[in-house]
Design goal:
The structure holds two protein chains of two kinds. Chain A is built from 15 helices and ten strands. Chain A is an alpha+beta fold. In chain A, strands 1, 2, 3, 4, 5, 6, 7, 8, 9 and 10 form a ten-stranded mixed β-sheet that branches. In chain A, helix 1 packs across helix 2 and helix 2 packs across helix 13. Chain A is elongated, with a radius of gyration of 31 Å. Chain B is an alpha+beta fold. Chain B contains ten helices and 14 strands. Helix content of chain B is 49%, strand content 18%. In chain B, strands 3, 4, 5, 7, 8, 9 and 10 form a seven-stranded mixed β-sheet that branches. In chain B, helix 1 packs across helix 2. The chains are: A alpha+beta, B alpha+beta. Chains A and B meet through helix 2, strand 2, helix 8, helix 11 and helix 13 of A and helix 2, helix 7 and helix 9 of B.
Chain lengths: 438, 411
């Protein structure tokens, strides 16, 4: 029976090509606009590390100026920590894992004289970085806490850097030269590009670049590196030197910990609060106690990873879809009522209301399917446009199978909803009245 | 023209009225707010940086080894750059307007920081400031070469003199009649515990900070200090090309510099147009998206009206024929459909205006947009009414041409 109704609906579409085309166009435009913005929103608001996003926390301590808050509006402490505080927290091992890190830019000097020195962006971090954020290794593995303690000159390379310098071969055990120092390669990562890059939202474009290499934080005792990213100070350095910088209240270091459950979280909060109270006795931390540990998804919200523009576009395209839906209701009503005569005849020949109902519902669904296909094509075009405007969020503009399925579902549900009232109206037709006027 | 029968018809069969009016209302609400957002974004996009944008590029380098002499490199590079054909001027700096990264710090007009501390962007420059950037120095003088020194990251920032933007001058010293009078005044920095001052020697008009600033309006507040910055192994130049020579320079400058001294990594140059492009990218994207949404909405509405009114015309062919047979002119029929449509659209516009204001209220609270000016509402309402009239024309003309004889035939 469904096949027959489907055949009927195709016939009806052919019989009224203009009205049908208008309806398909309305559905397609609505779906196209909505799916374009929804796709971007979907990726932006996604969980970058679903299996443990509730166990990874970033730590903020409020060491800011006595008379002016870092952020008056929301009373948030600075997003970064000072060197001395992050160093203390990372060394104290109160959490399952903990790491402090900051990003640096250095010059990589390949041994192969054919390859010119190249700019490399890296993270200076603790070994815990790897078990916390779980990048996959192509070759070798992470360095160990023992390497951290012994200040061994080891390095982990990204897949991309390994390809550029070693042609993609297993380089574990070889040496890598950075700013005139050699480091032993212990591991090479596979592709590692969490979206958004939740562990460093302040300095990197949220959906942009990744690191080329990772060095032990403890090596900074000799390297004396400066951060390539954000650095904020509220008072002058105690002494004008690198040591003074490390002692200062300037904030520039990311701090993340892994905590297993609510109890663990409370213990850790207690621990950092106690630490800050101790520091207050030394004359630091002039502001009221305001230390925060925030998990991944909350952190994405605090940093407003999903931009206001994305929200506004999503809402507007939703409203646009509703306008298209209303439009389709009107057109479908016109189309169905045009066939009142047909329906009258079919009812007179014994078709039940239910049969008429199904027949027209299937016709709406058919329009929905055609609209969905066209709408997906339009969404694809729309995303192409988004990509050309915002290359920095290009990774967020791919319509995968799941999203396409979702688009289909939305299109068919939309067309069924818009078909409901016209279908109901057409079912009210009494056979006699229609036949009389013929 | 009597509107009463039209109303009666509409009320007897209100589905069409409800559908079209709701569509128009929603459309109006979306269009008004979109137009308003677009207009703000266009303002953002057309922002002037205050420097000679057409001829400027920025290029940075990092040295390889700790023993590399950065001061020599900068001095040699600048001499070399200035000797290149097509180069007008060059200097070492930390950042450019609109580049999204840079320095900022609080400054005050008083040593005890009573009154206010004003967040301001810090730029580094040498004696070629005016020549290299093409900024508009409206009072005082530029730096002198004996005032310029190197600045290392560990140093305390202690500029004896500075040049400020006109906006910063008026913000720091609200009593001034005009920004030119700020020359000779002292600007304090370094915090309450360790206050130091720099004397203002010049004022620049309309120069922008690297970023817009969210909590603080830092965009127009700029200070130039007389230093050549050395950030560890990293430094950066801004180069101004002769007119029409920028493209050539962008093509060759990286190779030229790296041939001149290969003990370092030279980054690809960024012409100012690139910097600007990145700065306005999101605004451009938003403005374009919303424009497309508006156009499509109008199109969908128009097509919907055409479709529905065509159906009505078909449905009423017999009545139209009868009316014509009873003496109604073609014009009567035309005005009937036009008026009917006008009534429907107007009802939609009225509801839509309320919706639009509600939507704007929500946008104001949720996304801190500003309040909607009435002119947008009026303009959009007129636009929609016009759209409705144009859309209804085609089916109404068809109705107008229905022959009176139709009334006598049975369908």
């Amino acid at each position: 029976m469904i096949r027959y109704y489907f055949w009927l609906s195709l016939k009806s579409i052919k019989g009224n090509p203009w009205l049908s085309a208008l309806m398909v166009l309305a559905i397609a435009l609505g779906i196209g606009a909505f799916m374009t913005t929804y796709t971007v929103f979907h990726y932006m608001s996604g969980d970058p590390i679903p299996h443990k996003s509730d166990k990874l926390f970033t730590v903020q301590l409020d060491n800011w100026a006595p008379d002016s808050a870092w952020d008056d509006e929301n009373n948030r402490p600075p997003p970064h920590l000072t060197y001395r505080d992050s160093h203390f927290l990372a060394e104290s091992k109160e959490a399952t894992y903990q790491t402090a890190f900051f990003s640096v830019i250095m010059a990589a000097q390949p041994e192969n004289p054919d390859i010119k020195p190249l700019r490399a962006q890296g993270l200076v971090t603790y070994s815990d970085f790897f078990p916390m954020f779980e990048p996959k290794f192509l070759y070798g593995s992470a360095w160990t806490r023992r390497d951290d303690q012994q200040r061994n000159r080891v390095i982990v390379l990204s897949k991309d850097m390994n390809e550029r310098v070693f042609g993609g071969e297993n380089s574990v055990g070889k040496y890598f030269r950075l700013n005139d120092h050699e480091y032993k390669i212990v591991g090479v990562l596979d592709d590692f590009a969490p979206r958004p890059k939740y562990y460093d939202l302040v300095n990197s474009q949220d959906f942009g670049d990744t690191e080329d290499f990772y060095l032990p934080f403890t090596l900074n005792d000799f390297l004396k590196l400066r951060p390539a990213g954000n650095n904020s100070c509220w008072k002058p350095l105690p002494t004008a030197s690198y040591e003074g910088y490390l002692e200062s209240d300037c904030v520039w270091i990311n701090m993340w910990v892994q905590l297993e459950d609510e109890d663990h979280k409370q213990q850790y909060q207690q621990f950092i609060d106690n630490y800050v109270i101790d520091q207050k006795n030394l004359g630091r931390f002039p502001r009221p106690l305001n230390n925060q540990i925030t998990d991944v998804m909350d952190w994405l919200e605090v940093r407003e990873v999903v931009t206001d523009d994305t929200h506004i576009q999503l809402w507007l395209s939703g409203a646009f879809l509703i306008v298209c839906l209303l439009n389709t209701v009107g057109l479908m009503l016109a189309k169905f009522l045009k066939k009142s005569g047909d329906v009258g005849v079919r009812r007179a020949l014994g078709a039940s209301r239910a049969q008429i109902f199904y027949q027209h519902l299937i016709e709406s669904a058919t329009l929905g399917i055609v609209g969905a296909i066209l709408g997906l094509a339009l969404a694809w075009l729309g995303l192409l446009m988004v990509r050309s405007f915002s290359p920095d969020i290009a990774v967020l503009t791919h319509l995968d199978f799941k999203l396409s399925l979702f688009a289909f579902a939305v299109a068919i549900i939309t067309s069924l909803i818009s078909g409901l009232y016209p279908t109901w109206r057409i079912c009210q037709i009494t056979p006699a009245r229609q036949l009389k006027s013929q | 023209m009597d509107i009463k029968p039209i109303f009666k018809t509409l009320i007897r069969n209100p589905v069409g009225l409800v559908l079209i009016a709701t569509q128009v209302a929603l459309t109006l609400a979306i269009i008004v707010n979109s137009l308003f957002i677009i207009n703000q974004r266009l303002d953002n996009i057309s922002v002037k940086s205050g420097i000679d944008e057409d001829n400027t590029l920025m290029i940075s380098f990092s040295s390889l080894s700790d023993s590399y002499n950065m001061e020599n490199a900068i001095a040699n590079d600048l001499a070399f750059l200035k000797s290149l054909p097509g180069v007008n001027s060059a200097m070492a700096t930390n950042s450019l307007p609109l580049s999204n990264s840079g320095w900022s710090s609080g400054v005050s007009s008083q040593s005890d920081y009573k009154g206010v501390e004003i967040g301001s962007a810090f730029y580094f420059a040498d004696e070629t400031l005016v020549d290299t950037l093409g900024v508009d120095l409206i009072a005082g003088r530029s730096f002198r070469s004996e005032e310029i020194s190197y600045y290392y990251l560990s140093d305390e920032l202690e500029p004896p003199v500075c040049i400020v933007s006109a906006d910063l001058a008026l913000t720091l010293f609200p009593d001034l009649n005009n920004p030119e009078e700020v020359v000779g005044k002292k600007i304090w920095y370094g915090g309450v515990e360790n206050p130091k001052f720099a004397e203002v020697i010049g004022v620049i008009n309309d120069i922008k900070a690297p970023w817009r600033g969210w909590s603080e309006p830092i965009f127009n507040r700029v200070i130039y200090v007389p230093h050549k910055p050395i950030f560890g192994k990293f430094s950066r130049y801004v180069v101004r090309a002769e007119n029409g020579q920028l493209d050539n320079l962008v093509k060759n400058i990286q190779t030229e510099l790296s041939n001149f001294d290969d003990q370092r990594v030279i980054r690809p140059p960024r012409p100012f147009s690139d910097i600007r492009e990145v700065f306005v990218r999101n605004d451009k994207g938003m403005a374009t998206t919303l424009t497309i949404v508006i156009v499509l909405l109008l199109l969908i509405n128009a097509l919907g009206i055409i479709g529905l009114v065509s159906f009505w015309v078909t449905q009423r062919t017999k009545q139209i024929g009868t009316r014509r047979a009873l003496g109604a002119t073609k014009f009567d029929i035309l005005t009937y459909f036009l008026t009917e449509n006008l009534i429907i659209t107007c009802i939609g516009v009225i509801i839509g205006s309320i919706l639009a204001m509600a939507l704007n209220n929500w946008l104001v609270t949720a996304f801190s947009l500003s309040k909607l000016p009435m002119s947008y509402l009026l303009g959009s309402a007129l636009l929609l009414i016009l759209m409705g009239m144009i859309a209804v024309c085609a089916p109404a003309m068809r109705a107008m041409n229905v022959q009176p004889a139709v009334a006598t035939r049975s369908v």
